[in-house]
Amino acid sequence: MRIGWISRVLSWIAAALVGGVFGVAGTIGHSLMWGPIPVGLVVGAIACGAILVAIRALTHDRGATLAAGLGMVGLVVLISGVGPGGSVVVEDTLSGRIWIYLVAGLVLLAVAWPSFSRPPVRGDAGVQTTATRTGPHGDDVASPTRGPALGDQTGRES
User: Would you kindly state where each structural domain of the chain is located, as residue ranges?
Assistant: First the structure.
């Protein structure tokens, strides 16, 4: 069953909203330190990376992952500036710079990661495997393995 374009667009919008929520939560908590350990940075990176991996794994759609990433990066950039009252959420410190580049890197990695769901079927020496079938005269004929042709329900030639 094919997914309609309306459903796909709605999933991209939902992914962008979820990515934005995780981006804001990570941005607010990134500056939390526990002694010398940047706990907020680590927890925020794990959370943002986990939601990107989950969206990619559950939807099998780079578009949804990209939408989540754009929502995440967009809201990180939006709230990183100086607010109307002069407040700053992401300070110009090493931790703030690491957070911004870390989120962008996580999005890039999640979107660019190759899909391993359908590896090609290869035999020895990288050649497609062959199957033996019966020819029109009853003899065995070796032919490359392939799926059924258009309009052919059995996959065999008549």
Answer: 10-112, 120-158
Low-confidence ranges of the chain (pLDDT < 50): 130-131, 143, 152, 155-158
Question: Would you say the C-alpha torsion 143, 146, 148, 149 has a positive or negative sign?
Answer: negative
Give the per-residue pLDDT at 153: 54
Whether 40 contacts 32, CB under 8 Å: yes
* Phi, psi torsion values for 145, nearest 5 degrees: -75, 130
Cα–Cα distance, 158 to 154 (Å, whole number): 10
Would you say the C-alpha torsion 30, 33, 38, 39 has a positive or negative sign? negative
Residue 157: CB atoms within 10 A of its CB come to: 10
φ/ψ (deg, to 5) at 133: -130, 165
